[in-house]
Amino acid sequence: MSIPVNPPSGFRDYPPEACARREFAIRAISEVYRSFGFQAIATSAVEDLAVLTGKGGGENEKLIFKILKRGEKLDEARAAGGELADLGLRFDLTLPLSRFYAKHQSLLPHPFKAFHIGPVWRAERAQKGRYREFYQCDADIIGSESPLCEVEVISAILTAFKRLGFEDVDVHLNDRGLVYAALEQAGVPEDKRGAACVALDKLDKAPRETVLAELTELAGKTAVDALQKTLMSGAENHADYEKADAARYSQLRWISQTLAQAGWSRVRVNPSLMRGLDYYTGPVFEFRHAKLSGSLGGGGRYDKLSEKFGGPAVPACGGSIGFERLLLLLEESGVAAKISGPEFCVLVFDESLREKSLALAARLRQAGKSVDLYPGTGKLKAQFKYADAKGAAVALIIGPDEAAAGAVKAKNLKTGDERMTAVEELLRSEPQSA
Amino acid sequence: MSIPVNPPSGFRDYPPEACARREFAIRAISEVYRSFGFQAIATSAVEDLAVLTGKGGGENEKLIFKILKRGEKLDEARAAGGELADLGLRFDLTLPLSRFYAKHQSLLPHPFKAFHIGPVWRAERAQKGRYREFYQCDADIIGSESPLCEVEVISAILTAFKRLGFEDVDVHLNDRGLVYAALEQAGVPEDKRGAACVALDKLDKAPRETVLAELTELAGKTAVDALQKTLMSGAENHADYEKADAARYSQLRWISQTLAQAGWSRVRVNPSLMRGLDYYTGPVFEFRHAKLSGSLGGGGRYDKLSEKFGGPAVPACGGSIGFERLLLLLEESGVAAKISGPEFCVLVFDESLREKSLALAARLRQAGKSVDLYPGTGKLKAQFKYADAKGAAVALIIGPDEAAAGAVKAKNLKTGDERMTAVEELLRSEPQSA
Asked: Is B280 within 8 Å of B301 (Cβ atoms)?
């Protein structure tokens, strides 16, 4: 049987350079979130299917990777034609956070500002740029209904983008309740409003005519005419939209103005922004960048999600960075994925001198130096190539002459300079970067 | 339906304190591995079942969390009574690394020193201290048969333990080939040698009599008498064991002596050390600590694993830190899981002053300060409690008096000192830790 060397379709390996770029970005985002007062939490990759399914996840629920029952339970399920799976891989970080909060809230600061970075899994059809395992970087505030939460979450995410070199991120802002009010005002029947949102969500991707046709079929021409003035006008003036729910609209304006005062001027209300998930109850937002189609992330308020876990409604608001798309931007902008090489790479002249080489490496390491050691013996040319590939600053060799003199040959791999030196001198040296 | 608020059995949540402790340890281990010249890689959580099954994984293969096929393929499999799963969660990091290397080797330095940190999953029976999702921290060298690899891997792991405060880690060292030679010498038939290793592996956990009985049944009394002198003597003198394969034994001695010269004196050859995995072909090792039953990690040489992926045998050696056990030690030793709090926590006096509070937070953040903002309005007492819980150093309040004076009230949360100050002064202040 041929065993694949590729990861499964839609999954990826991360060689050192890709891994370094990802870690660099994750560290930057973590530092920003932390500096805003968000605290890191983590949850397991695997959740009970009952947590992942049911109201809230929308289309994503169809994309759950389900985990087969084991042992007798599997045999029973198979024989009875029953449910074969009991667990699943999380498809976002919001549902796990809600479960987490329901369990741990008594021990947490109140309100709770959490950040949560990790992989999620969706059984999407694999295609270029769409992965089945991808990272999300979420910041959430649970336990406060203040619109300060939206301002905090959006500011933190914009600051993370800025830290990574992207100041030109646009924020689109809307309110799920305001959308529903506009749909009601337009005469869209209550049971059709969810489907209307799904149709409106396609405005960015499909021709306007297609969306209009779909809406007309759902709600009739009169309703669609009204919606063209409110949700679909595309105009900067939202006078008609505002009338649907003045209080909600005014809150959106407050959020965008407050962000502007804090220096974030690229925030605007966009009545046609939907965001796919059913669990949003209030303001929703999305981050976009001119160089990317689709979004760089988004989020919103989900005040009812906690009810799923049997507790009362707890107000909550969170946002997520679409990490894989952010990495596309980072790669494109040429942000160096610098793999920091070791200060020294000790080469091994031959087998008779390997103990001396090892002792040199050990001594430098004990002094806190970063030291690679060529793990073998072999042609020095191959060993120098290795030291170069590792990004080492200085290659060190103890050959027979150096061994006799109790010295070390040091070759600066950038300049090519070679010199004999003593271990003590290497210990005193300032760290050199490669 | 009642939705569980607990993670599934055997899985865990990581609240801020646990999360901080884990990140602290992972960062320390990563820094040590990197300073030894190992490069970070990552692979996906999910692998094709064909990668995870077949020779090599031993008992762990039975513990794979399998992922249900999707769509038509599932319907077909169900109707035909066929295999229901096509993917699985990785149960270790060695198999994925081998697959990774088979795919990417042409782009990697040679030999390749990799480190790989992440969760793995095993469907073990859940019990105290045994988890179904746990982290491993692996360091491997692929492409060299030199015993320098063993020395490098073991030194790196011991240095990581030391960095975290554990200098008193013992290393047990053995050689799988030497064990097989001793079994052969004792007259254990070839087809019984694997089972004999499994029996010998229980020496640490089961009464000696049980193991002896099992071995006698497998190989007869004469063989067991011989094994009592070689693999089971427990003595420091390994004269009988050495005779089974003098070259392999001498290599083990070289490894332990070389490690001793580098300052690692707690390394000893232990003929009864087996390590469970079938893919080991040469030296194996295990890390132990007096405060823990079982191991703190281990590893060995697996020169044939690459053949699984259709290529030639590539020599390889790797070790793994049992991260969850290391965390037990860290918790027990009282290493503080310090959650670094923000320098400032801005409180919100009331709704009329929230814009001013936000502007203060924004200004301090733009200057690079770490600033939490209470995300709401409410009783100041609750807000002070929040600032304390977050570990902030200084709480800042703009009340009506401060607003009128264009000033800020700063309360040092450690000393309780309060004073009026100007934003400019806060900007100039040296960061205070909580």
From this structure: yes
